[in-house]
Design a protein that fits this description.
By secondary structure, this protein is α+β, with helices and mostly antiparallel strands. The protein contains 9 helices and 4 strands, in the order H-H-H-E-E-H-E-H-E-H-H-H-H. A hairpin with a 2-residue loop joins strand 1 and strand 2.
């Protein structure tokens, strides 16, 4: 469950980057979302772990107790999970569907917090190192997103939009004054 929660924001970013019509103007926004989602997992656990803890039945000394991350560290705790939410009366390949699943361990403590504290910062650093672009420049690229084109002939909006193109033009070595003037002329037609 922890791995699913951890990989879900990365999966969403990967799916975005693989779209046929993906625009580089969205990269910083999508990357920020992924980094924020991973950062939230540094201080807690995601939906699937929380759902597991709510759904699972933990037994310690033959007594049912609420499941918590701390309790899962105790190797004497038996954990049973009702499977009805997961299998919904399915019977794959002729196997009888179980109503509960008993988790067993090899007498080792479960340290999700240690795994989390090692894995999440590593993933965040890996994403940052693989997308080393200047975040400020990536935000400036948003001016190229067609959704930001001003409509209605508002001169102030058109001028503001054209000015937003100036740093992008400079970055690509284009005469920014000419780009701004051409953009204003074209949009005021």
């Amino acid at each position: 469950m922890f791995v699913i929660d951890t990989l879900d924001p990365i999966k969403i970013l990967c799916e975005c980057l693989q779209k046929d019509l993906y625009s580089i103007t969205r990269l910083q926004t999508d990357l920020d979302y992924t980094l924020e989602a991973l950062a939230e997992l540094q201080d807690g656990y995601g939906y699937n772990v929380k759902k597991f803890l709510e759904t699972a039945e933990c037994r310690k000394d033959d007594e049912v107790v609420p499941c918590t991350i701390e309790l899962l560290k105790d190797i004497a705790v038996q954990v049973r999970l009702p499977m009805t939410d997961f299998i919904k009366n399915r019977n794959p390949d002729g196997y009888p569907s179980a109503e509960t699943f008993q988790f067993t361990r090899n007498s080792r403590q479960l340290h999700l917090d240690v795994v989390r504290d090692h894995l999440i910062p590593g993933l965040i650093e890996e994403l940052k190192s693989n997308f080393p672009e200047n975040p400020e420049f990536l935000k400036q690229l948003n001016a190229l997103d067609p959704r930001h084109l001003p409509t209605g002939g508002n001169t102030d909006a058109i001028t503001g939009y054209a000015e937003d193109l100036r740093p992008v033009a400079r970055r690509f070595g284009v005469n920014s004054f000419a780009v701004v003037e051409e953009c204003i002329s074209f949009l005021l037609l």
